[in-house]
TrEMBL record:
This is Alpha/beta-hydrolase. Gene3D superfamilies: alpha/beta hydrolase. It comes from the Eukaryota. PANTHER family: EPOXIDE HYDROLASE 1-RELATED, HYDROLASE, PUTATIVE (AFU_ORTHOLOGUE AFUA_3G08960)-RELATED. The active site is at D203 (nucleophile), Y328 (proton donor), H375 (proton acceptor). It comes from Clathrospora elynae. Residues 19-134 form the Epoxide hydrolase N-terminal domain. Keywords: Hydrolase.
Length: 398
């Protein structure tokens, strides 16, 4: 099958059939969701849920924000509009056979170039995000370029367990390395095994990017906007050149580890319980996921309510929350990457690691510090993130 959408012509070197895909949730399923949403109660007032700055406070998301968000979700949010936006981009599905013979349906959005020397770049999302994180950036690119002038192949997959890709197997404790292997196979099957490719990611996507860059020769470099360096000697020393902004970032990281890490502990130690809890109510997911968008973003660049609701609705309609938290129970080994690495530093990141610490874990060829932006960089500042990636590519792709 082929697609008539711009940027949808698959590179000639692709090794297997790709199926054009359009997302359309069955109307009956959508109405069931809306009915459940309307009937789902919001808990009564407590001292804790009344402490807020309009959206969230020291104890978490506020009851007022929940009431307002649910009202808009029921009365104003238009899922079909979100589907139209998703489907305006070339979407594909393909089957990836794992080393043990297992098969995965992998979904991805792509902007394919007609240029024979186009540079392949894969962008990997995190939790509680999805491929939706990168659509604003892809929109910028399709407005700036044509298929004949785009210098890159842009590939944005749904990671296994998220949204529109297959779930991890029921018989195996799935790891970051497993997801990385499937993503690498996807890029090779797209024809980028001989030319090589680049990877970019934040949050879980940063772990996927690092694993791929450290493991597969075909990957020529990585760019991260989340640089967790646990396991590296990251203690400040007199030789470290740490800016005042980075010192504030270290304090933000310390505060996050003190009061913001409870969700990750629950994901890592009781994934079955929290999966069953949050899989039972869209309002529960609104609180659990909505809080992260509010607390992890720069207050000046927080994504719109519709953007937050689109992500949560996608999670609910695909039932992916319980299968999206597998990486949290894994103690991740920090792999050194001896390949050209870029790092974009945003002040409202959860752990905005100073450059002096980050460069101990990689061969850094690009670094840029920004004065605003947070954990969801691709959503909060798509133009800025893309500008950084493009500048890093100049140093990384030789």
């Amino acid at each position: 099958m082929t697609s008539s959408k711009p940027f949808s012509t698959v590179p000639a070197g692709a090794q297997q059939q790709l199926t054009p895909f359009e997302l359309h949730i069955d109307e009956e399923k959508l109405q069931e969701f809306k009915t459940l949403l309307k009937l789902s109660p919001i808990a009564k007032e407590t001292y804790e849920n009344l402490q807020d700055n309009g959206s969230h406070g020291k104890f978490g998301v506020s009851r007022k924000w929940m009431i307002d968000a649910k009202k808009h979700w029921v009365e104003g949010f238009d899922w079909r509009k979100e589907e139209d936006n998703i489907n305006s981009f070339p979407n594909f599905k393909t089957k990836i056979t794992d080393d043990d013979g297992g098969a995965f349906d992998v979904h991805f959005v792509a902007l394919f170039s007609s240029k024979p020397d186009a540079i392949p770049i894969a962008f990997f999302h995190g939790w509680p995000g999805s491929f939706l994180e990168f659509l604003p950036m892809l929109d910028l690119l399709r407005k700036k370029y044509t298929p004949d002038t785009l210098p890159y192949h842009i590939i944005v997959p749904s990671l296994p367990g998220f949204a529109l890709s297959s779930d991890p197997p029921l018989t195996k404790d799935w790891k970051v390395a497993d997801t990385s292997r499937i993503m690498h196979k996807l890029l090779v099957f797209l024809g980028f095994g001989s030319s090589g490719y680049l990877v970019q990611g934040g949050d879980i996507g940063s772990h996927i990017s690092r694993q791929i860059a450290a493991t597969y020769a075909e990957c020529k470099g990585m760019h991260l906007n989340f640089m967790l360096v646990t396991g590296i000697d990251a203690n400040s020393s007199p030789d470290d050149n740490i800016s005042e902004a980075e010192k504030k970032g270290i304090e933000r990281m310390k505060q996050f580890k003190k009061v913001g890490i409870a969700y990750a502990t629950e994901h890592g130690t009781r994934p079955s319980t929290i999966g069953l809890v949050l899989g039972s109510s869209p309002v529960a997911q609104l609180a659990w996921i909505g809080e992260k968008f509010l607390a992890w973003s720069d207050p000046s660049t927080t994504p719109s309510l519709d953007t937050i609701l689109a992500d949560i609705t996608l999670y609910w309609l695909t039932g992916c929350y319980p299968t999206s938290i597998y990486t949290y129970r894994e103690v991740k080994e920090l792999l050194y990457v001896d390949k050209p690495t870029g790092y974009s530093w945003f002040p409202y990141e959860l752990a905005p690691i100073p450059k002096a610490w980050a460069e101990r874990s990689c061969k850094m060829v690009f670094f840029k510090s920004h004065d605003k932006g947070g954990h969801f960089a691709a959503l909060e500042r798509p133009e800025t993130l893309w500008a950084d990636v493009e500048e890093w590519v100049k140093a990384a792709w030789k």
